[in-house]
Structure to design on (324 residues):
């Protein structure tokens, strides 16, 4: 890591004017009609036959443009953006999880902040050994990323009750830009490199759509009358207020609060609280939840009791993996 930083500092010290001239020449001389750098990426063993080049951050519109996505079913939701590097890294990477009926598509937005280097054949290698319920379908890399530009690569996973942390490594071919001519260096001076990223957690509740309902108690009792599955779990969180613990539980389960029960009487001073929440798992399987909160004597620990009901016992079991 230190060696890479020293090398990048050396490159960044090249005259700013020359570097800009070089980049302008590179843009004018080496782009195709689509505006992306024309270059032949090196082959690899990741079945990366399709190459994407261009600006990242397109989110839903960009992922839906992928031909491979047609097999994934309906797009249900897109997660928040996760930062997988520090914001001042040489290569800044963020990730969004696009949730489909049968697949998860991970969109990795990669920014090249090194002024005098072009990155080619850029992809994120995902180690899935510690993740249950997923299977790699395809890794779609980026053809090239110019200096101070962003592009998106994709990893397509088949899913069923995913649970675990993905170990991610950014891999690429790095080529220097000649500041005098604006040309990319030849293959003799290029080299492969990699950059360790933060892990990314996949959890069963990624596949839940929050769907608040009215008359929660009636629906809750009707599920019991129909013999639906029920699971209970008691655990504690190191939080000093019930509102903080409630926010964590809603993030764990990704359910929607019902009947205004997310509004806590007495706020941070509350000594007990009950939350009603509901959602729909993929293919519209309903999930209802009652969560009871109470602090310990020190007000440093919140004790939590979760009760889940759903027509699917598999869904109940999977969602309980998200808490505790």
């Amino acid at each position: 890591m230190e060696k890479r930083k020293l090398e990048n500092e050396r490159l960044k010290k090249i005259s700013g004017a020359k570097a800009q001239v070089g980049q302008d020449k590179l843009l004018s001389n080496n782009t195709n009609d689509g505006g992306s750098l024309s270059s032949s990426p090196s082959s690899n063993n990741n079945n990366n036959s399709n190459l994407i080049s261009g600006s990242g951050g397109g989110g839903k519109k960009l992922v839906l443009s992928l031909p491979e996505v047609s097999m994934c079913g309906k797009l249900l939701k897109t997660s928040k953006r996760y930062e997988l590097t520090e914001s001042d890294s040489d290569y800044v990477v963020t990730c969004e999880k696009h949730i489909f009926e049968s697949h998860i598509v991970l969109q990795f937005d990669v920014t090249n902040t090194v002024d005098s280097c072009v990155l080619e054949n850029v992809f994120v290698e995902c180690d899935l050994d510690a993740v249950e319920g997923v299977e790699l379908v395809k890794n779609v890399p980026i053809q090239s990323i110019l200096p101070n530009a962003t592009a998106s690569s994709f990893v397509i996973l088949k899913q069923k009750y995913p649970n675990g942390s993905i170990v991610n490594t950014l891999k690429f071919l790095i080529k220097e830009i000649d500041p005098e001519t604006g040309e990319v260096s030849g293959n003799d001076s290029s080299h492969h490199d990699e950059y360790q990223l933060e892990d990314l957690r996949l959890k069963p509740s990624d596949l839940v759509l929050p769907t608040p309902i009215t008359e929660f108690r009636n629906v809750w009792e009707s599920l019991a009358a129909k013999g639906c599955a029920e699971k209970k779990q008691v655990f504690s969180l190191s939080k000093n207020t019930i509102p903080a613990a409630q926010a964590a539980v809603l993030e764990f389960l990704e359910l929607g609060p019902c009947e205004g029960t997310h509004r806590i009487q007495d706020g941070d001073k509350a000594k007990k609280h009950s939350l009603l929440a509901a959602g729909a798992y993929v293919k519209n399987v309903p999930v209802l939840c009652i969560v009871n909160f109470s602090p310990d004597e020190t007000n440093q620990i919140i004790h939590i009791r979760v009760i889940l009901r759903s027509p699917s016992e598999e869904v109940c079991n999977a969602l309980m993996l998200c808490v505790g």
In short: The longest strand covers residues 149-176. The helical segments are 2-12, 16-29, 59-64, 216-225, 242-253, 313-320.
